[in-house]
Structure of Glutathione S-transferase:
Amino acid sequence: MCKSFSAQRSLHASPSALGGARAVRSPRGARQVAAATGQAAAPPTTMPSYKLYYFPLPGRGEVARLCCAVGGLELEEVRFPFDQWPKYKAIAPFGQCPFLEVDGTFLAQSAAIDRYLAAEAGLVPKDAFQAALADQAYNLCIDILTPLFDTFKVKDEAERIKAREAVVAGPLKEKLGYAETLVAKAGDGFVAGPELTYGDLHLFHALSTIISGWMDGVPKTALDGFPALQAHRNRVASVPQVKAFYEREDNQDDMRQAYKPNA
Amino acid sequence: MCKSFSAQRSLHASPSALGGARAVRSPRGARQVAAATGQAAAPPTTMPSYKLYYFPLPGRGEVARLCCAVGGLELEEVRFPFDQWPKYKAIAPFGQCPFLEVDGTFLAQSAAIDRYLAAEAGLVPKDAFQAALADQAYNLCIDILTPLFDTFKVKDEAERIKAREAVVAGPLKEKLGYAETLVAKAGDGFVAGPELTYGDLHLFHALSTIISGWMDGVPKTALDGFPALQAHRNRVASVPQVKAFYEREDNQDDMRQAYKPNA
């Protein structure tokens, strides 16, 4: 039921001080149609510029970064320290981060950003049901990570660790069990079929976060007993573009050591 | 990066006692390719059967139902009372509902179900960025509803109402403010352009839930001061297929009275 999109481009126009907007839209869709119909390809135009605003940690920005790394999309990153958040919050569409700037237009919500970049990167299956399986895994990972991330709201350290231990023993164990079944049935494949999707990248990120030791109360051994998940994590970590991403100089923080193969 | 999907069809095969699996896959994708390339259309085959398992209330099942109603997809529903949940939890892929059965295969996660059915119903924009805007609105609605739904965990009634009042005055007001800005800028259009998308259906559902009086502590007047949201809600409620959905005999519960135009 959707025809044009130009009317929406001004919804979140970014302040020019934060980067110049490009007027030319990605020819990606046009090229795909041209290829499918055998028509002449659209004339070459400027590819969109993608600019991600987030903290330096993996958190809710890592899947977007990985989609770009795997798909060969050029991603400009603004990684700002926590004390600069008020400055960026003022321009964040929904007062949250990450947010993405695409040719001068802002896009909020990590799930929307991740899926958009995944589509641009060729990491969303063309088949509707297969895409749904990738979405299913992606959203299961939200259920895996959210209770852990929520513990950051607990100010007292002892209480926070206690809360995390309860998450690990309860909901986390349950959700990881579902993920284990999903991945075990996929065999040597991925969560939505034989090819890597953004659902796998989110699972890889969730599992690596869990074993990173970044959150006191979540032991590095939390994946023991989930052999299919460990194998899946290693399989994704070994994808050449993923491996190269964690060899980059700006990804050498302590936490991201857990994102490497056999971490 | 995705080629085939047949290997994944057995991931969540449903027990035969709950409904026979159909062996024939939707020809939708094949037909679209055929149309785009000018090839002869695929021979007619059985369309997929969609079966949604959820409680009778709107909750996390309503967007899926609305996508089917608006897109003219036949949706079989298993609306079961709360006391039957243990029976269905045993077959739910991730121990959660709603879940969807597609030709005998289960799909979990409401966000994956909604987007899948929206795609089948033609309610996901073809343009990648416009689809991202629909996703952005869809996910903002998760942020709007989740803190309210979370209050059901508070067992003491007085405490629960107090928790909801805090949500209404704080995060809900903030999130509705972002939604108001989004919709106001869209003018007479919708959240991702001139055409209705599943992002609009989620927003309609979230706003209707809020004014339903279903949750003690959330006043029916909670949308006062958000004129663009009220207009958007009425616009979606007035879409003929939406209107017809709420005229159906099985949708005459008290809560759904708030889903009608000018409710």
Remarks:
- The longest helix of chain B spans residues 157-186.
- DSSP finds nine helices and four strands in chain B.
